[in-house]
Design a protein that fits this description.
Helix content is about 40%, strand content about 15%. With about 475 residues, the protein is an alpha/beta fold. Strands 1-3-2-4-6-5-10-11-9-7-8 form an eleven-stranded mixed beta sheet, sandwiched between helices. Helix 7 packs antiparallel against helix 15, helix 9 crosses helix 11 and helix 9 (about 300-320) packs across helix 12. It starts with 5 loop residues before the first helix and ends with a helix.
């Protein structure tokens, strides 16, 4: 059976042609057929899923007209999202065996809507990476080419949707970790405005940058998931209290009359020719639908990468200080407390996590705080102000999601070359604005992504522009080889 979207499955559940239990059985069978190769899952939550499927069936039987569109539909969760009693490792040895005593807000909202959680997906350790090669539990393969990376850090969540195992999943985006793997795996990936989705129950990497969002096969599905998980949460002090605009109300309004900006800095020499050609063709599609295109400038783009790799590691250094072997997670027993700390962290953290902890600790240390961290925060303000200025001229920005398509595993062992993967996604995190990636073509058989960015709290606008492009093309309908295998 060809993988179906949330919208299609919701209709099938209501017309009686399928059941939540049947969808669960199909999803588990698909994971069984594909995951030996992909390694997209760290755990399969069969018992929880069976309970949720039974509950969803009762809801659909008793209240079919008022049940959520997500009721009875399988979902996978990135393994940085806490679920009560379910092992949550963040892709790290140091949290092996950790079972949270509560469920995070965004996840609970899905559960309240009747979602059926089939498992926790693999990711770069503590969400630090752009290829999902940094997981302590092995790398994830790309469903379009198993020898290539799926992007990161939410590679498992992107790969399972691209492989057709589930119609949607949740990931997190700190510097591009939803949008970049979405582009590399040929699916839709949406990063909401910072503060729109509660971070309560998210194992933090960089608290001022992290945001939870969905992977889906269509923009409409992304809007459905966003509508379910967005909204104020008193458990998250950074949660935005203002009401969330209905993302479905204007989804089909099109782009006629909209002014779309193309940042000259986002199509630099580092962009692969095939990606550039795909994105420029996408620009012409939007123009044909009545949008006008305008070149704009975001001058701080060339320093945004440096700013990010001061701020994010600094916050990582602070957040990961709690993993010391005392309160939870793995512990290496030693005679002295200091040795226990050192040995536990040395054995529990991988190389990339250690690298970022050391970078961040250095940037926050006495004598360097003003020179690095404080200065980076000042430049971050400039990045935000540049976005604000551009959005006075245009309604949204359109650009590549990633400067390259999926690259071979092990081909970027230099940290700087890996960090460059996020050069056109991380500025949106620094500014806190929403962004989405939608499939826009293929380069030698590998997907490329178009990124849409809009002002803060204009999440519905991002979805509207992306939906307009998607409806005029058919790239989102092309299935990966593993989606065919899953069927």
């Amino acid at each position: 059976m060809t993988p179906r979207t949330i919208t299609e499955l919701a209709a099938a559940l209501r017309d009686g042609s399928t059941t939540p239990q049947a969808l669960l059985a199909d999803a588990l069978a698909r994971v069984e057929r594909t995951d030996k190769d992909l390694n997209a899952y760290l755990s399969v939550t069969r018992e929880l899923a069976e309970q949720q499927a039974d509950a969803a069936a009762r809801t659909l039987g008793d209240h079919p007209d008022t049940a959520s569109p997500l009721c009875g539909i399988p979902v996978a969760l990135k393994d940085v999202l806490c679920v009560d009693g379910i092992e949550t490792t963040a892709g790290s040895k140091i949290l092996r065996g950790f079972k949270p005593p509560y469920t995070g807000t965004a996840v609970q909202r899905l559960f309240d809507a009747g979602a059926v959680c089939i498992g926790k997906t693999n990711c770069d350790e503590f969400a630090m990476g752009s290829s999902t090669e940094n997981s302590a539990y092995g790398p994830v393969g790309n469903p379009w080419d198993i020898e290539r990376v799926p992007g990161g850090s939410s590679g498992g969540s992107a790969a399972t949707v691209a492989a057709g195992s589930v119609p949607y999943s949740l990931g997190t985006d700190t510097g591009g970790s939803i949008r970049q793997p979405a582009a590399l795996c040929g699916v839709v990936g949406f990063k909401p405005t910072y503060g729109r989705v509660s971070r309560y129950g998210l194992i933090a990497f960089a608290s001022s940058l992290d945001q939870i969002g969905p992977f889906t096969r269509t923009v409409e599905d992304a809007a459905l998931v966003f509508a379910a998980i967005a909204g104020h949460d008193p458990c998250d002090s950074t949660s935005e209290p203002r009401a969330v605009e209905d993302p479905l109300a204007s989804l089909g309004a099109g782009v006629a009359g909209m002014r779309l900006g193309i940042p000259r800095e986002y199509l630099g020499d580092g962009t692969e020719p095939g990606v550039r050609a795909s994105v420029e063709a996408a620009f012409r599609v939007l123009e044909a639908q009545g949008a006008t295109l305008h070149e704009v400038s975001l001058p701080s783009t060339d320093v945004a990468l440096s700013v990010y790799y001061v701020i994010a590691p600094a916050e990582c250094s602070s957040n990961l200080a709690r993993y010391d072997g005392v309160r939870f997670g793995n512990r290496v027993e030693r005679a002295s407390l200091t040795d226990m700390y050192l040995q536990t962290r040395g054995a529990g953290f991988g190389n990339e996590v250690k690298r970022r902890i050391m970078l961040g600790t250095y940037a926050l240390s006495s004598g360097y705080y003003d020179a690095y961290y404080r200065q980076a925060q000042k430049v971050r303000t400039l990045v935000s102000q540049e976005f604000e200025a551009v959005f006075k001229e245009v309604d949204a920005i359109v650009c590549p999601t990633s400067p390259s398509v999926a690259f071979p595993m092990g081909s970027r062992d230099d940290p700087l070359s890996m960090y460059m993967c996020d050069v056109v996604t991380l500025p949106a995190n620094l500014a806190g604005v929403p962004g989405i990636s939608v499939p826009c073509g293929f380069v030698d058989g590998l997907p490329a992504g178009l990124q849409v960015i809009a002002p803060r709290f204009e999440d519905a606008r991002v979805l509207r522009v992306a939906h307009a492009y998607e409806q005029a093309t058919d790239f989102h309908t092309v299935l990966s080889p593993y989606a065919g295998k899953a069927a």
